[in-house]
Amino acid sequence: MTLENIKDERYSRNEAIVAVLTDLGYIERLGYGIDRMFAAMQEAGLPAPEFAETVAGFRVTLRSAGDDLVSAQPQEQRWHHAFLNERQEAALAFVRQHGRITNSDLQALAPEVHPETIRRDLADLVDKNLLIRIGSKRATYYILK
């Protein structure tokens, strides 16, 4: 794999690690992340990702459109530039319609997705300050921040 073919090639050094990470839901499809980076940047009207070799591997640089990192979008669309996956966008739409979402609700929206991936999607929305987690364990639900 080289910087020139990184977008087109799918490569893993350790197939066993890839298999385990896939089974645990940490990887959906080998090489899909790079394609998603390019698509998200293009959709947002931003420059393509830049890849550079380093001593230990490579570095990815994602550039913004300017110095203003706060969106001027209305509150309803404040997550437009948050680079969310389809499940996360569906989760936010669900919360807007129903007022809250649970892990089970999102699992029902994406039944083919591993439960750990669903948990990480919701945790990521909390980390991005888009949702607030209420409760714990089975009583947990999420609302818009």
Task: Record the SSE blueprint.
Layout: H1 15-23, H2 32-43, E1 50-53, E2 58-61, H3 86-98, H4 103-109, H5 115-127, E3 131-134, E4 141-144
Antiparallel strand pairs: 1-2, 3-4
Summarize the structure.
With 145 residues, the chain is α+β, with helices and mostly antiparallel strands.
Commentary on this structure:
The protein has 145 residues and is of the alpha+beta class. It folds into 2 domains: 15-61, no CATH class; 75-144, Orthogonal Bundle (Arc Repressor Mutant, subunit A), CATH 1.10.10.10. The protein has 5 helices and 4 strands. The strands form 2 sheets. A two-stranded antiparallel ribbon has the order 1-2. Strands 3-4 form a two-stranded antiparallel ribbon. The chain is globular.
Under CATH, the homologous superfamily of the largest domain reads Winged helix-like DNA-binding domain superfamily/Winged helix DNA-binding domain
- Record field, number of beta strands: 4
* N→C terminal distance: 42 Å
CATH topology name of the largest domain:
Arc Repressor Mutant, subunit A
Number of helices: 5
What summary fits the major beta sheet?
2 strands, antiparallel
The name of the CATH architecture of the largest domain is Orthogonal Bundle
Low-confidence stretches: 68-76
Radius of gyration: 17 Å
Query: What is the helix fraction of residues, given as a range?
Result: 25-40%
Mean pLDDT: 79
What are the secondary-structure elements, in order, as H or E? HHEEHHHEE
User: How many domain units?
Assistant: 2
The secondary structure category is: alpha+beta
Q: What is the approximate shape? A: globular
Q: What is the beta-strand fraction?
A: 5-15%
